[in-house]
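User: Good morning. I'm curious how flavin-adenine dinucleotide would be positioned relative to this chain. Could you predict the structure with it bound?
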Amino acid sequence: MRVQVAIVGSGPAGLLLGQLLEQAGIRTAIVESRSREYVLGRIRAGVLESGTVALLERAGVADRLHEESLVHEGFDLAFSGRRVRIDLQALTGRSVSVYGQTEVTKDLMDARKAPGFYEARDVAVHSFESGTPYVTFNENQKIDCDFIAGCDGFHGVCRASVPAEKITLFEKTYPFGWLGILSDTPPVSEELIYVSHERGFALCSQRSRTRSRYYLQCPLSEQVDEWPDERFWAELRRRLPADAAQNLVTGPSIEKSIAPLRSFVAEPLAFGRLFLAGDAGHIVPPTGAKGLNLAASDVYYLSEALIAFYKGNESQLKAYSAKALARVWKAERFSWWMTKLLHGFPEEGSFGRHMQLAELEYIAGSRAAQTALAENYVGLPY
Ligand code: FAD
Ligand code: PHB
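Assistant: Good morning! Here's the predicted structure, ligand included:
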C-alpha cells in the first residue's frame, strides 16, 4: 500500500499525529507492534497542559475530556511536615487537566478511521535518507510513503535505525524508580501532592474522584512482588504530612508497577525523511509531568510542518528538529530540577538534604520562585 506519511507506533504521539494529518487530508497508516488492548492497558501519564488540551480539541477528540477531566488550579509541595500550595491559576492564569493517558489514547483510537496495523512483527524502516522511504512488517507487508514518523517510544525501531554517526545521544539515569499503584479509592486530596521526605519522594495523584494514583520513590533493585499493598500503603502513610495521612483511604491495588527514571535526548530529531516525535526522541523523569505533553508539542510542530510541505512550503520541515528540541531541552531542565529537588539522594549526604530544604523554603516564601515553577508546570508556550 501507499500513504503519504507512515507512522510507526500507536501511542499518544502516533495517534495524535495521525488524527491531525488525516483531518488535513493527508493519508496515513499506523504500524504498531502491540495489540490495541495492550496499548490501552498501560497506565502512564495523568496531567495534561492546557496546550495539550487545546491540541486535542483541534484534533476533534476532546468531548469526553471536557466531560470527565478534572481541572486543577494548583498543587501542593509537602516537606518538613508542611504543605505549600502552588497556585497555578493565580501565578500564571492557567491550569492543568487531570485525564489519564489511557483515556487520551482511547479517544484517539475511537476517532481513527484510517488504517492501523496492530501486533505487527519485525517492523523495519528503510531508505529514509533517499527520496523513497518505506516500512515493512510481518512476512511480506510493505508501506511506501513520502515520510516516516518515528513515534515508537524509547525502545522503538526508528531511532535505532539511524546510523550511529548521524545521531548524538544525551542521557542521565537516576539511581531509583517510581513504584506506582492505581486503586479505586477516593484521592487523599483534591489536588496533587508532591512530597519530599527523608524516606524518599512520594506523589499523590488521581484519575477521577473515585480513582487514585500514588507513587513512591524506591530503589531500582526492588521488585513489584516485594511490595504487597499493605507495605505500599504503610510506606505512603509514613511519607505523607500528618493531615493527609489521616485522610488516606486505602484499598486493593488494580495496577502496580515500577518505572525507572531517565533523562534522555537524541539530536537531531530529523534524518532525511524520518522524523522522531515523543519518547522515541526524548525521555524525561515523570516528576514534572512532561512526557506526554512533550509528545504533544512535537506532534504539533511536525503536523504543521507536514501540512505546510503538502501546500508547497518545505521550510518548516527543515526547522522541525531545532524547533522541537528547543522546547524539549527546557522541559528536560524542569523535569531534572523537580527530580533533584524532591527525591532522596543519600549519596549527597546531609549537606545535599539541607540544600533541598533551603530551596523548598525559598520557593515557599518567594512569589518569583513559585512563578518560575508554575509557568514550567503548566507548560511553556509553543
Ligand atoms: P509511547 O506511549 O511509548 O508509544 C510508543 C508506541 O510505539 C507504543 O505503543 C509501542 O508499543 C510502539 N512501538 C514500540 N516499538 C515499536 C516497533 N518496533 N514497531 C511498532 N511499534 C512500536 N507524561 C506526562 O506528560 N505526564 C505525566 O503525568 C506522566 N506520568 C508518567 C508516569 C509514568 C509511570 C510513566 C512511565 C510515564 C509518564 N509520563 C508522563 C510519560 C508519558 O507516558 C510518555 O511520555 C508518553 O507515553 C509518550 O508517548 P509516545 O507516543 O511518544 O510513546
Ligand atoms: C500521574 O498521575 O500519573 C502523574 C501525575 C503527575 C506527575 C507524574 C505522574 O508528575
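The chain has a mean pLDDT of 97. The pocket of flavin-adenine dinucleotide (ligand 1) is lined by residues 8-14, 31-34, 39, 44-47, 101, 120, 123, 151-153, 155-157, 178, 180, 259, 278-279, 286, 289-293, 295 (CB under 6 Å).
Let me know if you'd like a different ligand tried.
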